[in-house]
Amino acid sequence: MNIKDMLYNLVSVYSPSGREDEISKLIRDYLIDLDFEDPIIDRAKNVVSDNGSGKSILLCGHEDTVPGYINPAINGDYIYGRGAVDAKASLLALMLGAHKAMKDGFNKRILFVAAAGEESTSKGINEIIKNYKKTDYAIFGEPGNYNNITCGYRGRVLIKISMSSETHHASASNLYDNPVSYLIDVWNKIKELYGNSEFEKVSAAITKFSGGKYHNVTPENAYMYLDIRYPASESEEFLDNIYKLAGKASVKVISRVPPYISNFKSDLITSFKAAISKYSKPGLIIKSGTGDMNILGSKWNIPCITYGPGDTKLSHTSNEVINVNEIEKSIEIIARAIQHLASL
């Protein structure tokens, strides 16, 4: 089966976080066909194959996507569908890059993982951290274009801010605290401080807001979720500001993921730069988002990068599309980088 058909099959399986059963079976079948060693589906719905021994490399893509079905299609060299960019093309590139390296004589340890839940709770990578011996290096699959190496991500804190009050007739709402109105004021204050998209600054986005039941009664309860991103250069002092700005509202930290920045002089980055140089000038980039690399990199304390084909700007959009030629280049680069890393 060729690359185009393999990716088309992957994006044809709708696999938002929490619904990885079908996609995990397809990925395991691919690994069996490619002679990966004893691929399994674990209790988190990860697909895992642990091959070889000696110097070790984790190759980890994610099998889940954000919600929102997109009709899969092939048009010439272009493949359309949910996950075509984020991040089934990267997962396929890691799989086929590892396969090519092994065919070409690579005999060190490759821990290959198609992780579940990356777009939600990261349950998959946490299961791997608990149950597998740590590797010497890790490569995560996410879009960044074939000639770029993603060397870092910001951290993330998910916060829920809630407000409660007695209900009143809407005509007298100005006499009492209105939870919805109160939280809107809180958000506007937070936005003044953190309403930016600069990588080196703390940024906040409101991702969910709910309050009220009836059209003529003030709400009894309201809540909002804030997604806050912060660089490694920042401490979590911004949380103190959030608590102060929330005033009478209650603040709860739902989850947190630390920032991660790679060592730019590591053998891992050196190997990828050498492999990319055959096709283009390699770029080193840092992204404003957050990924599984943050979690494993901080827990295992090993050199990590994120790499994969595709335009990041198309991630999570209704127009996910990728050129198969970029995937082919990425496969070659991954195979070359792995072999170069093993020789160092």
Outline the structure in words.
This protein is α/β, with parallel strands linked by helices. The chain has 2 domains: 236 residues, 3-Layer(aba) Sandwich (Aminopeptidase), CATH 3.40.630.10; 103 residues, Alpha-Beta Plaits, CATH 3.30.70. It has 9 helices and 16 strands. β1 and β2 form a beta hairpin. The two termini are 33 Å apart.
Describe, in short, the structure shown.
The chain is an alpha/beta fold and 344 residues long. Helix content is 33%, strand content 26%. The radius of gyration is 22 Å and the shape is elongated.
Q: Which characteristics define this entry?
A:
2 domains, alpha/beta, Aminopeptidase, 26% strand, 344 residues, Alpha-Beta Plaits, 16 strands, six-stranded mixed sheet, four-stranded antiparallel sheet
Any chance you could write out the topology, listing elements then pairs?
Layout: H1 3-12, H2 21-33, E1 40-41, E2 47-51, E3 56-62, E4 73-75, E5 78-80, H3 88-103, E6 109-115, H4 123-131, E7 137-141, E8 148-153, E9 155-164, H5 179-194, E10 203-211, E11 221-230, H6 238-246, E12 250-257, E13 260-261, H7 267-276, E14 283-287, H8 292-300, E15 304-307, E16 321-323, H9 324-343
Parallel strand pairs: 3-6, 3-7, 7-15, 8-14
Antiparallel strand pairs: 1-2, 2-6, 4-5, 5-16, 8-13, 9-11, 9-12, 10-11
